[in-house]
Design goal:
Elements lengths: L4 H7 L14 E3 L2 E3 L11 E2 L15 E11 L2 E18 L2 E12 L2 E13 L4 E12 L2 E10 L6 E6 L10 E5 L6 E13 L4 E12 L2 E10 L3 E7 L8 E9 L2 H21 L10 E2 L2
Antiparallel strand pairs: 1-2, 3-7, 4-5, 4-16, 5-6, 5-17, 6-7, 7-8, 8-9, 8-10, 10-11, 11-12, 12-13, 13-14, 14-15, 15-16
Amino acid sequence: MKASPLQLACSLISASLVVTLLAACGRSKGVTRTFDRTTFKAANFVDPRAGTNEWFPMKPGTQWVREGTTLIGNRKVPHEVITTVTDVIRVIHGVPAVLVHDYSVGAGQVVQQSLDYFALDKEGRVWNVGATTEQYEAGRFVAVDEAWISGKEGAVAGVLMPANPTAHTPAWLIARPPGEDGDAAEFLRTQKKECVPFSCFRDVLVTREGKRTSLDNEFKYFARGVGQIRNEPRGLSRHDDIERLINVTKLSPAGLVEASAAALRIDRRAAGAKPKLFAGARATRRP
């Protein structure tokens, strides 16, 4: 069967460092979406530790704790995620990216640790330029489960959070790791009030996230100056993850040193497991 022009256009999305998000390639429940057209150029980026995005402030030492549940098989189990912005930078294709560490606990034991490599452009957009994930069993490291870096093996960087998304903001590609359809998000609404165990917040940003071609995996809730406070699974969610913010704090200098050292260990283990993927500048701490 001969491919349609639309199918050909979708298959030819560039995996280079220029992210061109093509109109009409994404469909969800019969709705055609036009994705934002944003360029990924090294000259457009600044030190991400400036933390100027109000919806996702990346100030080193900021730590969020979210609790909830996740689905393992048919069993719903308690789940906790501790997210920490470190002061570690890895330069990816000339772009400085800060390492953000996720520590996931299930049934009282670590089940996963991951790093996200987030960059910040001059307009205040937070970019997702890579990630690595470690799996654990009985609290012990098993393997580097997956990793990707923008521009390697066809991976494409994307925008994690626009500077100030509104109803007029087109949907945006979050990232497209090698061999995947890619994750995307769109503005859903601004909510007057949302309460979680940590506090109640006003004028909360709500986004819808999912696969680029089926944006109905989850709703995420963001408070200005705080970051993500809640997520809510939708019909296409695989694990029905539920998370609520229970604490946000600023680490002490000693705590930041410890968190950054943990991030460096994960980064170096990933680089050792996948040397071609991580070839280039090593991750380093701020002097």
